[in-house]
Write a structure and sequence with these properties.
This protein is mostly helical. The protein has 4 helices and no strands. The chain has one domain.
């Protein structure tokens, strides 16, 4: 399986996680972040995502799936 497919399948699995499972995953990822630049970039993206959600800049699942498929197809 190529990298793009692996990422897509991982994202699909993350979408199905319960809150408890997601908390565990976040804790694991936070332990793995040692590079301050990576941590800064991820924090900025998370804050931007929160802002976008509050402003209603969201997609339906179908729209997100379609956009992701378009990007994955463009990588082939």
């Amino acid at each position: 399986m190529d990298l793009a497919s692996r990422k897509y399948h991982l994202m699909e699995r993350v979408m199905l996680l319960s809150e408890k499972e997601l908390d565990k995953m976040e804790a694991l990822l936070n332990k793995e972040i040692f590079d301050p630049e990576v941590e800064k970039a991820m924090t900025e993206r998370a804050l931007q995502s929160e802002k976008d959600i509050k402003e209603g800049k969201v997609y339906t699942i179908e729209e997100a799936d379609s956009r992701l498929n378009q990007k994955l197809n463009s990588w082939k």
